[in-house]
Specification:
globular, alpha/beta, hydrolase activity, acting on ester bonds, Metallo-depent_PP-like, Calcineurin-like phosphoesterase domain-containing protein, 33% helix, 207 residues, 3-stranded parallel beta sheet
Length: 207
């Protein structure tokens, strides 16, 4: 009888162990409705083991100024050099790029989004997840917020920038999205949500 009791206890103990261990592979995570998992093909973003999460913000990069002068392209080279230095020093878990990414009124129709490639190059090199939001200079005669976002999505594997559903924001302001950050990679609920709202700056020009 004593032996049976010990056996039952052992069984109960292993069952408890299985139940406790199970949440590491939370089955609910696998069946998340798509609107709760907007990044099914990208890594889930989570805090570091010490519970921190460092975000670096780059603002008003204004690439593409005066392509016809020496100082314009040189300024962009200097900006990417600074980005590389900041990324190496800070080693952020996420980067947010505020508008204006590009001085759109200085760009040419045929190559206005090539500057996105220059901007994302330092981020691609260190494989840091990031996203962006756009400003009034990113909506100009030869460029729109949508064009910049599509170029970024094409050229940066770790871009978390998304386009709002059809009818929200339009070509001049589709950059409305949220990015879930989890305390632990297998958590069901995010511990932090990064929201981006597109101001549709310069929309009134109606090009
Ligand atoms: C670029 O950086 C160099 C070296 O720091 C500096 O001398 C130069 O003035 C900068 N050029 C521009 C256009 O900012
Ligand atoms: C837009 O691009 C075209 C073609 O490159 C160029 O001729 C025009 O000056 C640009 N418009 C503006 C407002 O910069
Ligand atoms: C974009 O095109 C313009 C006009 O052809 C040119 O002056 C400029 O250097 C080009 N910019 C880039 C980054 O290739």
């Amino acid at each position: 009888m004593g032996e049976n009791f010990v056996l039952v206890l052992l069984l109960v103990a292993s069952l408890v162990q299985i139940l406790v261990a199970a949440p590491v592979y939370n089955p609910r995570q696998l069946s998340l409705p798509s609107q709760l998992n907007p990044y099914p093909t990208k890594p889930r973003l989570s805090f570091r083991p010490d519970g921190t999460f460092k975000i670096t913000v780059f603002s008003d990069l204004h690439f593409g100024e005066n392509a016809w002068d020496v100082w314009g392209p040189q300024q962009d080279v200097n900006s990417t050099r600074l980005m590389r230095k900041v990324l190496a020093d800070e080693k952020p878990d996420y980067v947010f790029i505020n508008g204006d990414l590009i001085t759109g009124e200085n760009t040419f129709r045929e190559n206005s989004t090539v500057y996105i490639d220059e901007i994302v190059a330092p981020l691609n090199e260190v494989k840091v997840p990031f996203s962006s939001t756009h400003g009034n200079h990113d909506n100009q005669a030869n460029i729109t917020h949508l064009e910049e976002i599509l170029r970024e999505q094409r050229d940066a594997p770790l871009s978390y920038t998304r386009v709002a559903p059809p009818g929200v924001g339009g070509e001049y302001g589709p950059g409305n999205y949220w990015v879930p950050i989890y305390a632990h990679p297998a958590d069901f609920q995010p511990a932090l949500i990064i929201w981006a709202f597109d101001s549709r700056g310069q929309l009134m020009l109606n090009y």
